[in-house]
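Notebook entry, structure prediction.
Reason for the run: the old model in the group folder had no record of what sequence produced it. Starting over properly, with the input documented here first.
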Amino acid sequence: MQRITIFLMLALMSVSAVLPAKGGTKPAVLLDLRFDKGEKPEFVKLNGAAGYSEGGLALIPGESLVKIDKFYALAERKACYRVTPSEDAVLWFRSSEGDFTAELDVPSRKVRILTSPATEADVPFLEGGKAFDVEVYHIYNKAIVRVSAVKGSGSVAVEAVNDGPGGHGAGVLQPGFNVGMQWDHYCFGLRSGTSALVSRVTVSSLKKKVRMLIYGDSITQPEGYFPADKFQFAWTQRIISHLGGNAMSSGRGGCTIVHVLDYIKNELPYIKTDYVMVTIGTNGGNTEENLSELVEYILSQGCIPILNNIPCNESGTQIPCNEVIAKVRGKYGIKGCMFDLVTSLDGDGKQVDKNQMFFEDYWKEWKWLVYHHPNWVGGDNMFKRTLVDVPEIYE
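New structure, fully documented this time:
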């Protein structure tokens, strides 16, 4: 009950009170779809969930969803949907992987995030036949959904905080509270009701200019598994904090360099930054060709690449991976952080120091005992290593 009470109190807060306060808060538009202007982009997959009409995208009730087939992983972003629902409409806004769902419930006059239990707030001004902006924010371990009347002053926000378990199986530190990371493509639809019209969809970065962007896999997305009360000690958050908020991360759990090559092209061109730090390779795919392509793309955007060694893990797969990474660094004359050295027992980048990692017990599932996600101890050492290897990012 205490958690629910806290969330409902937060729901009444203005979104401006919880958005990042430093580091260039002016947003950068990553995508702006004007269905009311007759736009019909090929990457918008209707999936039988909508049809184009004179006023915009007319949603068809059912379980199908419209999908925006552009990959985003930026940890400080929002999607804004301008919708005109019928009096009986229930709309949903979901991630393509189904880990996150928000609902706009017109009959009940509520907005909710479908956590367990649901996190919701009353929207007393919500009614059919009027236009509303539904903003879905992803801010690291926070999800915020704000509903605002297009004409008028009504605005209500609801917030939920992802509280990671810290491990898996025997390694779980706490039950946690799952909210979802909004993986990977934005989806929306009319769950029930007569009609709803979507006239515009905009995807934005919450910051237009930063000192550095940080890209990678789950190691760069600690918000997915870190306990909320320790999240500020994750390595990405230590860097961002040391830069006074003048940085953002864009990590996707389970991804490879191929995925990064996909979604970085939907984010980096729209955000002005000096440095792009990449920590990738835990899930494979780190060929010299792929790494070279990524480095060359970052250079083409006028940014300085930083290509880090991946931390140690229980299987020792970081050793051959880091050899390729070092080769590519030498090829382009770029720097990187030696995260493998500071997460190893003897400081040689070989055997993982288990005290620096969350313990993930997947023995029942796959016969694996995993130590490759840095905890607050490993995160502290990785942050400190950036001060040694790339001090210029803080100048």
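Summary: The first strand starts at residue 28 and ends at 34.
The old model has been moved to the deprecated folder.
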